[in-house]
Design a protein that fits this description.
Helix content is about 45%, strand content about 10%. It is an alpha/beta fold. The chain has three domains: about 160 residues, P-loop containing nucleotide triphosphate hydrolases (Rossmann fold), CATH 3.40.50.300; about 80 residues, Helicase, Ruva Protein, domain 3 (Orthogonal Bundle), CATH 1.10.8.60; about 70 residues, Winged helix-like DNA-binding domain superfamily/Winged helix DNA-binding domain (Arc Repressor Mutant, subunit A, Orthogonal Bundle), CATH 1.10.10. Helix 9 packs antiparallel against helix 10.
């Protein structure tokens, strides 16, 4: 059997650089976020005059460029000066003060972390950072288990700008008054992209990711419409990559509409986060949902408790929302009865209507 006879050879791949379709990829130009980036730069600007900058709270729905815009600014800052440390921490992965401290130590090159507690690590970090200025970014800051960390950052570092990024604008109001008054951040909302902006961003990524003439306007329009419907650029990146792999699988050099439609049918498998980043309770809840997709939130909670889950119903609901934001599950309200009994929980991404 000639299983591999018709496959495209290495030099024939339609992909120029598939990394350009990774959500973590930072394009050389960040389209449609110039005003927001200028605002962030203004908050940081006092650091160049050896003064403390402004703290900033950035919020907006998932997948609309918050992280990529801020990472771009940090990259530009690193090109401009060595006198400002740039620290970026993803709090989905580093959700405790100790994990954050270890991450910062790694970024600034401090290796003597063995047998040191959180307070000792931050003392060492402050000695190094306070020789310069610093921009500290806490992405997905709402995942922190202890918000007193933010107070400590304000207190420990002298010349700094602290940037917090979350999906919800309500989170800042939930912070302890002591923390919020110490932080006193400016607020910056990222609005969702419109359809034309969505198309422009995907077109830019196509130019980096694919060989010329691989994706025609009909395919781009179809994927852009689904991406706009989802309100999340990461959906479009997923669809483009899936469509490209389907195209290569049939040994073609051009993505057609059927390839795009086949990719859209795979949206239920789309996940933003890796399950390796979930805690034990989230994994128990996710596995319970996978085995009982379509049950109500209350039914899933009762099964979770029988499996040894120890969280209260309120904590369980927060975990469920985290899983929804990570595109592991979908929640569908029936608008009747008690909240837990009128919310259907489904395994996999169902944010869009099935094609």
């Amino acid at each position: 059997m000639a299983l591999f006879k018709d496959m495209l050879k290495g030099g024939e791949s339609i992909f120029l650089d598939s990394l350009a379709l990774d959500p973590e990829f930072t394009p050389p130009i960040i389209k449609y976020r110039e005003d927001q980036q200028q605002y962030v730069a203004t908050c940081i600007k006092p650091l160049f005059q050896k003064r403390s900058g402004k703290n900033l709270f950035i919020f907006g729905s998932p997948g609309i460029g918050k992280t990529v815009a801020v990472k771009y600014i940090l990259n530009e800052l690193n090109k401009e000066t060595d006198e400002i440390e740039t620290i970026y921490v993803n709090c989905w992965k580093k959700d405790t003060p100790y994990k954050v401290a270890l991450d910062i130590c790694d970024q600034i090159g401090f290796k003597f972390v063995h047998d040191r507690d959180t307070a000792e690590l931050f003392k060492e970090i402050s000695k190094i950072i306070n020789k310069k200025s610093a921009v500290i970014v806490l992405d997905e800051a709402d995942k922190l288990t202890d918000n007193n960390l933010i107070y400590s950052l304000c207190d420990e570092f002298i010349k700094k700008s602290i940037i917090l990024i979350t999906n919800s604008g309500d989170w800042i109001a939930e912070l302890d008054n002591r923390v919020r008054s110490r932080l006193t951040p400016d607020l910056l909302e990222f609005k969702p992209y419109n359809l034309e902006e969505t198309k422009g961003i995907l077109k830019q990524r196509i130019e980096y990711a694919f060989a010329p003439n691989t994706v025609d306007s009909e395919v781009l329009n179809k994927i852009a419409e689904k991406t706009f419907e989802a309100g999340d650029i990461r959906v479009g990146l997923f669809l483009l990559k899936e469509a490209g792999e389907i195209t290569e699988g049939r040994s073609s050099k051009k993505i057609d509409l059927k390839d795009a439609e086949s990719a859209i049918k795979k949206l239920k498998d789309f996940q933003i986060k890796s399950t390796s980043n979930l805690d034990d309770d989230e994994n128990i809840i996710l596995n319970t949902i996978k085995e009982n997709s379509g049950k109500t939130s209350m039914e899933i909670f009762e099964m979770y408790k029988r499996k040894g889950g120890k969280k209260s119903y309120a904590s369980y609901q927060r975990k469920l929302k985290n899983l929804e934001r990570g595109r592991f599950v979908s929640l569908r309200s029936l608008n009747r009865g008690e909240p837990g009994r009128s919310t259907i929980v489904e395994w996999g991404y169902r944010g869009l209507d099935e094609f």
